[in-house]
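Regression test case RT-17, inverse folding.

Input:
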């Protein structure tokens, strides 16, 4: 069914404006963004099938342009670019929050930010948030990919990046594609090695956050720093 064929009080746009965005389901929000369906599917059916294919909104927002292109009805550039833009807007909005105030004034925002960037990657990615003296975000950089061990993540490179950004502190982060956020012994050893290396240039390691789809773990909160 097309959006225009729905009763006025059931149309997502009117519902959003009269009752607020929280009143809409994930399917309704996505249908509002897609606007039209295909000859085979109405816009609501299309929205439902897209969410099912990517296991919900989080998976959709982390889908690549090529993955979206393979979805029936998203072969054109308009809808695809809109979905990609939504993810980028979400990333930038959270980044602005972290740049405007002390990072640990909002630890959940840090976790959400890292999940947006890393949680749905198919391979392990090691990243760092570089912070100023007030613990505000200066920059995030993805530094290494692949299986992360003390030998594959080079402390020297992390130190050089910290000096480049004039960082006073860092938050380390990586993802676990396996879906668990429990730190391994290798994660703990790597954290201690980086903490020692960065201490030589007076840069503090405030946390090491491990993310996976739908969850995040702070090693600082677990007492592992």
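Golden output:
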């Amino acid at each position: 069914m097309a959006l225009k064929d729905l009763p006025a009080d059931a149309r997502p746009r009117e519902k959003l404006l009269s009752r607020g965005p929280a009143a809409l389901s994930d399917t309704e929000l996505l249908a509002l963004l897609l606007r039209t369906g295909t000859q085979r599917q109405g816009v609501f059916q299309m929205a439902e099938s897209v969410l099912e294919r990517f296991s919900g909104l989080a998976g959709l927002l982390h889908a690549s342009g090529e993955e979206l292109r393979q979805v029936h009805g998203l072969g054109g550039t308009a809808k695809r670019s809109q979905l990609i833009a939504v993810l980028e807007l979400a990333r930038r909005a959270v980044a602005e929050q972290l740049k405007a105030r002390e990072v640990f004034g909002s630890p959940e925002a840090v976790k959400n930010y890292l999940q947006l960037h890393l949680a749905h990657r198919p391979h392990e990615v090691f990243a760092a948030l570089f912070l100023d003296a007030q613990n505000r975000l200066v920059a995030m950089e993805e530094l290494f990919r692949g299986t992360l061990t003390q030998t594959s993540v080079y402390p020297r490179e992390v130190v050089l990046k910290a000096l480049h950004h004039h960082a006073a502190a860092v938050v380390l982060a990586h993802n676990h594609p396996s879906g668990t956020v429990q730190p391994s012994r290798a994660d703990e050893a790597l954290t201690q090695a980086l903490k020692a290396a960065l201490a030589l240039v007076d840069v503090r390691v405030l946390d090491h956050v491990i993310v996976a789809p739908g969850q995040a773990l702070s090693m600082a909160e677990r007492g592992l720093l």
